[in-house]
Specification:
Layout: H1 3-22, H2 31-44, H3 54-61, H4 66-78, H5 84-90, H6 92-105, H7 111-120, H8 123-135, H9 154-168, H10 174-187, H11 195-208, H12 211-223
Helix pairs in contact: 1-2, 2-4, 4-6, 6-7, 6-8, 9-10, 10-11
């Protein structure tokens, strides 16, 4: 590892992060460059200059949410054919939507077509088009819900969302994971609900789980012996 080069990249990341803090009205304008440098830190092992792992490095630099760092790296990994300036002119929310398409299409990614679509669409319109591309359906309307948590409650909630994300897939939103936790809770409260309520909740719970999860659990149950502990479903 070229330690001088590594230190240069690490210093540049710190410079961008400090710049974002100072210039709040232009926050996230250097997200493409930041994603590029983060990928270099990950791939070249530059995090070894002061940290035990890449995860430890991200936790130190993105204490509020490491998810954002992974979003920025995904943008760089999947949109390398688009110049940094053009990506940053879109905004990172639009760039992230394009990265989803690029990851799905691979070498067949229609870069010019989707770049033009992103430029001509609002953020909400682009999200709708990307959702329709993957599912064939329109994006379901949503609402922002805010509520207060005490510090003593936060570890339990975060752990539940983490476990749900491992079951449903880490690309799922936190709102999606919260619904999975709630559906699982309601499915176990038969005495508090009507049969129709339970059927509705179980159907929704099955839709929330990844396609292969049910088959995997079913196979484990089928091959288990009476003395083995069966996985919870």
């Amino acid at each position: 590892m070229d330690k001088a080069k590594a230190q240069q990249v690490l210093d540049r990341i710190d410079e961008i992060l400090h710049w974002e803090e100072r210039v709040d009205q232009q926050k996230d304008q250097k997200f493409a460059e930041l994603g590029k440098h983060l990928c270099e830190v990950r791939n070249q092992g530059y995090w070894r200059l002061g940290y035990g792992s890449f995860e430890e490095y991200l936790e130190a630099k993105f204490p509020d949410s490491r998810r954002k760092a992974y979003y920025l790296m995904s943008i760089h990994d999947n949109l390398r054919q688009i110049p940094t300036g053009e990506i940053e002119s879109l905004g990172w929310s639009k760039a992230l939507e394009l990265a989803k398409i690029a990851r799905s299409q691979g070498r067949k990614f229609e870069c010019a077509t989707w770049l033009h679509t992103a430029k001509e669409s609002s953020k909400e319109e682009l999200q709708q088009k990307v959702h329709r591309y993957f599912t064939g359906e329109d994006l379901e309307p949503y609402e922002m819900v805010c509520f207060k948590l005490f510090e003593s409650q936060l570890p339990v909630v975060e752990r539940a969302l983490y476990v749900a994300s491992r079951m449903a897939g880490t690309e799922r939103s936190r709102g999606f994971c919260l619904e999975l936790v709630c559906a699982d809770f309601l499915a176990g409260q038969a005495e508090e609900s009507s049969p129709d309520d339970i059927v509705l909740v179980v159907e929704r719970l099955l839709k929330l789980l990844p396609p292969g999860y049910i088959r995997q659990v079913g196979a484990e149950i089928h091959h288990a012996t009476p003395t083995e502990s069966l996985p919870e479903c």
